[in-house]
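so my prof wants the structure for this chain in the C-alpha cells format not the other one, which i didnt know existed until like an hour ago. anyway here's the sequence
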Amino acid sequence: MTKAKTALASPTIKAIAQRVGISYSTVSRALNDKRGVRSDLRETIKRIAGDLGYLPNSSAKALVKKRIGVLGLIIPRTGEFAFQSPYYSQMLLGISEIANQHDYNLTLSINAKGSYASLYFRRLVDGIIVIGNRIDDENIAELENKGVPAVVVPGFLENSGIDVPSANSENVRCVYRAVNYLLDLGHRKIAFILGTSNSKYSVERFKAYQAAFRDRGLIYNSDYIVESDFSKTDGFRLMGRLLDLPERPTCVICINDTVTPGALHQINLRGLKIPEDISFVAIGSSDILDLFQPPLTTVKIAVTKIGQTVAQMLIQLIENGSCPERHVVIPSELIIRDSTCAVKGQKQV
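here's what i got, hopefully its the right format
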C-alpha cells in the first residue's frame, strides 16, 4: 500500500520565528514593516523568510489592509483590436511598472459587457482603470455614482457632468501646432483621418485642426475629414477614399498608430511618393513610427507615461481616498521629420 503524496506546505511565520528564536508578533511586524523592530533584526528576519521561501497569505493581508491588492483594467474594445495596438501595450507597460512598485497585481477585462462597478463590489479588485474610454459610456458614470475608486483614459469633455479622475495626452495644443506647421508649408488641402466621434481623442484633435484654420482666416474642406474605427483596415479604406477625391489632399494626418500603417499601405499601392506627392503626419506613441521610410513627422504621445500616471492616481485613491490632481495632462511633442514638405510651386509662409 502506497502512501498518498502530500503537497509541500509554504513556510509560516511560526517557522521563521522558531528559526530566529523570537516571537510570532515580532516576525509579523518585521515582515509588514511595522515599527518596534530593530533594523538589523528586521533584515535578518526578511533574509531568513526569503531563504525559507516564505510567501505571505494574501487573504490575511487583505483583511489587515482592507485591500486585496488587485487593480482592475478595463479595455472596452475587442481583444483582436487591443492586442494589435501599440497604444494598449504601452499603456499596460506603464501601469504594470507602478503596480509592481506598490505590490499590486493586475486583472484585465477586455470588451466587458455590463457593469464595470460589479468587479469592485464582488471584491475582485480594489479599483478600476478604464483605458480608451468612450464619452458616451454609461458604465463610467456608475463608477462615479457608486463611489468606486476609478481613473479613466483619456476622460471626458468639459461640462459633461462626469468628474471621474483622468489622465490624457496633450491633444489640442500639439495638434494645433502641427496643423499650423503644415499651413506654413503652404498646405490647404489637409486631410485628417480621425477616430470615432464618441472618442475624446477625436473631438479634441479635430477642434485643434479647426482652430488652426480659423485663426488663419481659412476655411477647411469637410470632404477631407473622415472618421475611422481606429483600425488599420479603416486607415487603408479611408485613405483610398481621400485619394479618389477630384482634388486629392496634399497632406494627411492620421489619428493613431493603427490607422497610420493602413493609410501608408494605400499610398504605396497607388505608387505615390511621400512627401513629393503627399505629405504625411502621424499621431502616435509607437517607436515603429520611427522606422518608416521616409521617417514620419509625428505628434508623439507619451502613452507609457500616461499609464504610469493613471496607476499612481488609482493607488492614491485606494490608499488615501483622494489624488492630488484629478485631471492630469501629459505633454505631447511635435517631431518634424522627412514625410512633410512645402507644397509644390508654393513658397513656405
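also thought this was worth mentioning. Confidence is low (pLDDT under 50) at residues 1-9.
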